[in-house]
Design goal:
Oligomer: single chain
Structural class: alpha/beta
Order of helices and strands: EEHEHEHHEEHEHEHEHHEH
Strand order of the largest sheet: 1-2-10-7-8-9
Strand content: 15-25%
Bound molecules: pyridoxal-5'-phosphate
Helix content: 40-55%
């Protein structure tokens, strides 16, 4: 049995932009985490054109990627809403996860996702009845929803009569930052969370080799490898929650806020931080942190006992 679907009329399209303070500095946060309880953030924006698609021939959606990916969960919600079958290719699952599904993986399975473990990802092709969605929803169609996001920000800035603004968001594939820059009246700044600055520049150059169309990259002094647990990131995540009363994601946002706070003076005018959602992944990340901390703790105890 699939879960009952949260109705489409629960979608908030023009999400609020709220003023907040972090470390005594003022920021605005675009609350795209509020788009919908399950399908939100930049994945909702990137998938928006499929939501509006009215094509009775389509019965199936296929994609590939990581076993805790936010994109995977977002596609599983889309498939449930559209009554499409969802098939997902992933690398061999860790035993622990296949025995005890958690996080985005469990949520996606509960939504009816059928997964196939493969050595390497097959080339996915759309057919008459099947939509193939790129790894991380990184595809040209994503531009449609991201353009709407850019226009919401453009309009908000005009309504507030602000004269200078910068937009910031953390990047994975860099798709959101790139299309946002194409439709935004303001410079878009980002930081790489997967790979380094060169990876992002290469991704963008595949779309357009003219680097003047690219967003601007800023980096934290000590970037953390994607998915790696880092106590400073955990502490920053907690302090963000305390100062803003907004829950951020644990995978991208700590890297994003680190880069932003360290480089705030480089960004002209008011700064708008795009909340890209992803909160569904926080339970499995917190599980990992708790496990990690309890292991560290027992390790310290062992040292104590030996002394
Ligand atoms: C997917 C994701 C990103 C990165 O988006 P890209 O378009 O791949 O750069 C950033 N933050 C969150 C929370 C995400 O889920």
């Amino acid at each position: 049995m699939h879960n009952p679907v949260c109705p489409l009329n629960r979608f908030i399209l023009d999400t609020p932009i709220v003023k907040t303070q972090v470390n005594g500095l003022q920021f605005h946060v675009k609350r795209d985490d509020l788009i919908h309880p399950e399908l939100n953030g930049n994945k909702a924006r990137k998938l928006q054109h499929y939501l509006n698609l009215n094509s009775p021939d389509i019965t199936k959606v296929i994609s590939c990627g990581g076993n805790q990916s936010n994109a995977m969960f977002a596609i599983s919600v889309l498939a449930r809403i559209k009554h499409w079958h969802f098939e997902y290719y992933l690398k061999k699952l860790p035993d622990q996860l296949s025995r005890h599904p958690v996080g985005n993986f469990k949520l996606a399975c509960d939504n009816g996702m059928e997964y196939r473990e493969v050595e390497s990802f097959p080339e996915l092709r759309s057919t008459q009845d099947t939509i193939a969605i790129e790894h991380g929803c990184s595809e040209p169609g994503a531009e449609i929803g991201i353009a709407i996001l850019a226009n919401e920000i453009n309009q908000w800035v005009r309504a507030k009569s602000l004269t200078k603004c910068s937009i910031f968001l953390p990047s994975g594939t860099g798709t959101t930052a790139y299309y946002l820059q194409q439709h935004s009246q303001w410079p878009v700044y980002t930081t790489p969370c997967i790979g380094n600055a060169d990876f992002l520049r290469k991704q963008w150059s595949l779309i357009n080799s003219d680097t003047r169309t690219h967003p601007i990259i800023i980096s934290a002094k000590k970037p953390v490898r994607f998915g790696q647990l880092d106590i400073n990131h955990l502490n920053l995540w907690k302090s963000l929650q305390q100062s803003t009363h907004i829950e951020f994601d644990l995978l991208y946002d700590p890297q994003g806020w680190s880069a932003l706070l360290e480089n705030r003076s480089k960004l002209p005018g008011e700064v708008i931080y795009i909340h890209c959602g992803g909160l569904s992944g926080n339970t499995s990340m917190l599980d990992r942190y708790n496990h990690f901390l309890s292991k560290q703790h027992s390790g310290m105890n062992r040292i104590d006992n030996a002394m």
